[in-house]
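Hi Y.,

Following your request, here is the sequence exactly as I used it, all 110 residues.
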Amino acid sequence: MATHAEIQIADAPFFLAEYGQPGAVYEPAAGPPRTITVIVMHGPPDLTDRPRTEITPLRVQAANDDHLGILRSAWCNRDRITLTVGGVRRTLRIVRPVAEDAAMVTWEVC
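Below is the corresponding structure, written out as tokens. Let me know if you'd prefer a different format.
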């Protein structure tokens, strides 16, 4: 019987293939850029502590892998990702990890 982490790692390629946006370019601060597949998640507006400003968080979920995605332990706050948002190609900074499991990491980008 497989462990929970092993099941998550085995299921990650399916979720990326089914829901992912191919063609995102991950540009690490140290190393060459590479093309990865990410799941783009648009969050609801966040009005907490900012009553006059509406911020709509944009999050991307990528494999926690140094070849297929963004390895959490190798991340640096100078890393960038280029992806299509609303039909427009944009380069965004990867701000911080929001959630993580054995297979995937969710990143906040801006």
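The radius of gyration is 15 Å.

Thanks again,
Q.
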